[in-house]
Amino acid sequence: MAQTSDESTDRLWYDAPARDWNAALPVGNGHLGAMVFGRPGRERLQLNEDTLWSGGPYRNDNPAAGPEALAEVRRLVDAGEYRAAQDRADATLLGVPLRNASYGSLGDLFVRLDQPGRTPDEPASDYRRELDLGTAVAGTRWGSDGRRTTAETFVSAPDQLLVHRITADQPFGLRLGYRGARAVPGVDPMGDTAATGPAAAPVWDPAEDLPPLAAGVRVRADGADRVLVTGPGADHVVDDHTVPGALSWAIGVRVVTDGVVTTRDPDEERATDEGVSPLEVADATWVALLVAAATSHVGYDDVSGDPVAVVRTRTAAPGEVLDPAGLDRLRERHVADHRGYYDRFAVDLGPAPDRPTDERVRNGEDGADPALHALYLQYARYLLIASSRPGSQPANLQGIWNEGLTPPWGSKWTININTEMNYWPADAAGLGDLVAPLLALVEDLAVTGAPTARAMYGARGWVAHHNTDLWRATAPVDGAPWGLWPTGGAWLCTTLWQHWRYRRDPDELARLYPVLRGASEFFLDTLVEDPGGRGLITSPSVSPENQHPYGSSVAAGPAMDRQLVVDLLTATAEAAALLDRDHELAALLRATAARIVPDRIGAQGQLQEWLEDWDADAPEQHHRHVSHLYAVYPGGRISTETTPELAAAARVSLDQRGDYATGWGTAWRACLWARLGDGERAHRVLCGLVGPQRTYPNLFDAHPPFQIDGNFGGAAAMLELLARADERTLWLFPALPSGWPTGSVRGLCAVGGLEVDLRWRDGALTGAEVRGTPGRPLAVRTPTGRHEVELDADGRWVLG
C-alpha cells in the first residue's frame, strides 16, 4: 500500500495472509464491521451490522414468576435448602424463552482477481498485510514477476461505507462473490469455556461444495454498477419456543473503476466457486467497492425501517466524482474522523521489534517486549472506536465482529461483567464520548425492566438480570445459577456513574438521574432483612456464575450484590443533591445504604464472597469470576488507603483465586492487582494475558473463543498502573512495573476532568503535566512524595 503522511507507528503487521478468522484484521465504524483476511487474489470480507439479531420485539417475562413464587424461593434459601431453592427458581422464575436472541453475521463478500500471468492460488512475493491503528485502514500488498498490487479497506463513519480499493501496475479482472452466513460451532451458553472454538475460516476453494443461499436471501444486480443482497432475519428458537425473525436486511455494493463492469442476476439456487457471483470487472487498473449495510431495526420495539433505501442512499452518498482523487477525499474524511478520537491519547513503552505481530504474541508471556503492551492498549482503543459510536449499539461480547449465525454465548450483552468491562478503559483513554451507546441501552432497559420489576418482584423502578439483547429483554435467562441475579441493572448504573465522574457534565447527569432513581427504587422495595439480624440483603441471588459448597449457586446477600447496591444508592443520593431534587428520597437512600450488611472477612483472612464464610469449601477455588472484589475494582470503596484491612483480605482472595483464568478473568485480576498497588503482580498477569494462551494472532482476546472484553479489561489495567484519581487526589505511577522501565504517555484522563502527560526513565518520573479546571486545588501523589498544588490560570500544573 502507498506510504502516506497520515500513517502512524501503531500498527499490526504480518508476512502471510490470515489462515482463519482469528488472524483476520477488524475494521468498523460502530454500525458496520468487517474482518479482512488479506488473501492475494482471493480476498474475503466477512461482514457484520450491529442490529442484525435473531427474533423480533418480544418480552420474556414468565407469567409464573410473581411475588409468590419469589417468596417461596426466598423461604427455601432462608431455611438453608439451597438446592431446592435453585430447582424451584428454575421451575418458576426464569424467562420465556429461556435464552436471549443472538447477534448474527451478514455473510461474506469474496473478491477474486484475475491477473495476467498469475493464478489466484499462486504464492505472492514481497507480501505484507497490516492494520494501521492511527488511520483505521487495513492494507495488503504483494508482488509477482515485477508487478505490484495493493489493497486497502476501511469503514467510514462520515460516509457510512466500507471501502475496499485495489490498485495494480497492470490491468486485471475481478469477480465479486457473496456467500451467506453459516452456523459455526458454538459453545454451551452456560459453560465457562468453549465446547469447540469458532470454525476456522476456510480458504476460498473452487472445489468447495458451497451450500445454496438461505431461504429468502436474494442477490441481484441493482443498476449497471451495483449489487443488492437482501434477506430476512433469523428466527429466535429456544427449545419449543420461537420468536419469529422480524428484521429484514440489505447489503448494497457499488463498484467504481476504470475498467468495464458487467452485472448479471445469478441463479439464486446455484452455488459457484465464488458463492453467488453477480458482478465482474475487466481491464481495470483500479477498482473500489463501496459497501453499505442496514437492517429494518429502528428501536427495540420498532422494525419498520427500509434497509434497501438506506443502502442505496449510502452507496450514492459520496456526492463527488469517484475517480482516484475522489476516493482519496473519501479516505481523508474517514481518517480525519478516526483521528479525532484516536489522537487524543498516546503511549510509548519503548521501540517495537521489527517482527510480525503474531510472532510477538507467541513470545508475549516473557515480558521482554513492553512495546507489545503499548500496542495492545492502543488496539483496545481502536476496537472501541470501531465498535461503539454515538448512535450505534454498544460493544457486545465480540464488539461488532462475529463470524456466524450461532456465535459464542449469542454474542449478546452479558451484564454480570462483560458489558461493563468493555467500557472500563473508555474515559481514562480519552474515549468517554463512546460510552453514549451504553447509556442509551440502559435507558431502554429502564423502560423494559419496569414491567419485569412489577410482575416478578412487585416492585417499583426497573430491574435487569445477567443478560440482555437487541430487544432489551430483562427477565432471568439461561438457568438459576446464572440468571437469578437481580443486580445487572445496578452494575450498569454504577458503570455510568463512574463514567460521569470523569467529566461531571451537568446535562449528562440530568439524563442519567432518572435511570439511577428507577434502579434504586427497585432495591428500596426488594431488599430484605437478613434472618441473622445483620442488616439488609438481596434474596434470592447468586454470586455471578459461581457455586457455593451446598450444591447450588442460589443464596442470599452475596458480597457483590451488597457492594453494588451500596454504590448505586449512594450515587443516586449524590446525584439528587447535585441536581437539588428529591431530598427526602436521597435521605432514605443514604439511610438504606448504611443498613446493608458490610463486607466481611473470613477465617482464612479472605474477603468473603458470600454472606457466610463458605469460601474455603467452594467447589471452584480458581473460578474465573472475582465478583466479591468489585468493591476494589472497579468500585473503589475498598482501597489500601481507606480500608487497609479489607484491602488485605482482598489480596488473600486474589491469591486464592490464582492469576490466570479466561481472557477477561485474567484482565480483571490485572486490574485488581494494579488498584491494590502491586505493579509487579499486575504486570506478570498482563504478560500472561498478551501471550499465546489468551491472545489470538490478530490481538483479539482468546477467552477462548474470542470475547472482546479481555482486550478492554487488559487496557484498563495498563492505564491503572500509570495514573488514577478521586475527587481529591491524583496518583501518578501508583503501581508502575519494572517491566516498563522507560516511556511516556499523553492524554491519560482521570476523575474530575483531569488530563495527564507523563515521562519516565529507568523507573523514575522525569516529567509530568496535569491539566484541569483553573484554580483547582489538588493533592498529587508520586512515588517520591505528596504535592499540594493549585492548577494555574491556564488549568495546568507542571513537574520537571
Automatic annotation (TrEMBL):
The keyword Cell inner membrane does not apply. Residues 12-296 form the Glycosyl hydrolase family 95 N-terminal domain. GO terms for molecular function: alpha-L-fucosidase activity. One of its GO terms (biological process) is carbohydrate metabolic process. Residues 328-722 form the Glycosyl hydrolase family 95 catalytic domain. It comes from the Bacteria. InterPro entries: 6-hairpin_glycosidase_sf, 6hp_glycosidase-like_sf, AFCA-like_C, Alpha-L-fucosidase, GH95_cat, GH95_N_dom. Residues 728-788 form the Alpha fucosidase A-like C-terminal domain. The keyword Hydrolase applies. Its EC number is 3.2.1.51. Keywords: Glycosidase, Hydrolase. This is Alpha-L-fucosidase 2.
